[in-house]
Automatic annotation (TrEMBL):
Organism: Christiangramia gaetbulicola
Any Pfam family matching the protein: UPF0114
Keyword Membrane attributed: yes
Domain of life of the native organism: Bacteria
Protein name, UniProt field: Putative membrane protein YqhA
Source taxonomy: Bacteria, Pseudomonadati, Bacteroidota, Flavobacteriia, Flavobacteriales
Cited InterPro entries: UPF0114
Record keywords: Membrane, Transmembrane, Transmembrane helix
Amino acid sequence: MLNFLLRLRFLVVIIVLFTFLNSLILIFLAVKRSVHAYGIVFFNLESDKPPGVEILESIDLFLIGLVFLIFSLGLTKLFLGRIGDEDDESNLPKWLRIKNFFELKILLWQTILVSLVVLFVDQLFEHEGTMEWNLLIVPVAILVLSVSMAVIQKYERHS
């Protein structure tokens, strides 16, 4: 039974491949949006959004693509073993030296928080003159996620 369960870990390969593909597609869409924003600035292309909003939306797409990329690399490291040719982790960047699922979760949590901050700034630029109460949903979510992450990290260190 244990051998059967150990073979199932290679299903993670499918998850990693599609998550990596999703990250590449999001990065492509972000590049496309950035190029369109540059076209608005330099070639006076038509757009219903200002170029600053287009650029902020592209940054948001880059960050979400980064979340998918980190997730796929983290799953590869945790479930499939080595990422590089060597066992030595000194060649890996510090943020990719993931030893357990908790560290991967915290890394993803931090990346999602940064994406939410960029999303909020994007919303501020988009609704520049018309501030409404529903714009407070994202900052409240950022606050709740930040506090909960701090509590979980403190609890994990003390256990």
